[in-house]
């Protein structure tokens, strides 16, 4: 039973110490998110984030570090962006693709090292850009050159510190450290969301609250369904005789996830969607044609219908794009052929490759449409019911990250338990 696993987990000294260590590092990350950069007026920042939806969404993603203007105000954004850019570059540079896909664990470590190094200039650039945006908006006063340089160094160091914490957490084997840090930042806002929802309680809106609650359950169930759904392709292995022993002759299946890209398409789409609004916020205070154009762009992309349609289409586009980068049917087909495996009724080699591509495109279409609907549904429900307190909590990026992280952590914890008590579990 599940409670036997929990009891065994905490009785085992090694697993208990790992859990407490990971919990301690998550607390450290939350402390870092609440240490403001010296010389910043936090009160003005909080008023700004309460009035600006675009930066409010970014603030949720950084776990509140942005509204506090803390040393970790960029969160894990620079590291995630650096990793994404390098993964996209694998489609352009064959040497980088071989390093990422064909050179095994050593190649993957070198690729991750490149991502770490690329994070440093990216964090410095994003930190400078964020400071300039807030100065243009009049939220913070202009810095002198020494203070500006020290602030950029502090912001960059904060981003690298969070990246380091994430890698240490990953080494414990209880989940992906980067995902867990983002998860902790999102969950930290759950009490605030609950309070904001019930602080403005209106008995006349009880039917709307009920509709919102039912929709929330449906959305959560949909996220779990799309995260766990698989399309199993049967695979058989030919019998092979080696010496006095016979190998193969077994049948198994190849699982294809309905959403192999995970939460990354929504993160990509969100970054692209927020970019025009951030640029418009920066140039909106300029006079003349530049300021007018920036204001017009900002109004266009802040329109709920335009925002929702672009969000939906970008999620579908990036689902296909990211899957093409990370999932290679040709490699799977070649590996099956080398191991003597085949799909019943399909010849090995190119026919198997075409079959896998056909199945993947059909499955991916369902997953992409479903992912796009889940991304925009919370905004639709909030607009229809007038209940906005849980918009970020139950929808889009936030919910997908929460569900994905919980499911992945459960799988890794089960793997740790099975390694130590195989017969029981």
Can you describe what's shown?
By secondary structure, the protein is mainly alpha-helical. The chain has a domain at 1-188: SecY subunit domain (Preprotein translocase SecY subunit). The chain has helices spanning 2-11, 13-32, 42-51, 53-61, 77-89, 94-101, 104-136, 145-171, 177-187, 190-199, 206-228, 264-283, 289-302, 304-326, 329-338, 350-385, 391-394, 396-420, and strands spanning 230-237, 240-242, 245-247, 251-257, 341-342. The strands form two sheets. The protein has a three-stranded antiparallel β-sheet. A two-stranded antiparallel sheet has the order 2-3. Helix 6 crosses helix 7 (104-136) and helix 11 crosses helix 18 (396-420). The longest helix is centred in the C-terminal third of the chain and has 36 residues, at 350-385. The radius of gyration is 24 Å and the shape is globular.
List the helices and strands and how they pair.
Blueprint lengths: L1 H10 L1 H20 L9 H10 L1 H9 L15 H13 L4 H8 L2 H33 L8 H27 L5 H11 L2 H10 L6 H23 L1 E8 L2 E3 L2 E3 L3 E7 L6 H20 L5 H14 L1 H23 L2 H10 L2 E2 L7 H36 L5 H4 L1 H25 L5
Antiparallel strand pairs: 1-4, 1-5, 2-3
Helix pairs in contact: 2-8, 5-7, 6-7, 7-8, 7-12, 8-9, 9-18, 11-16, 11-18, 12-13, 12-14, 14-16, 15-16
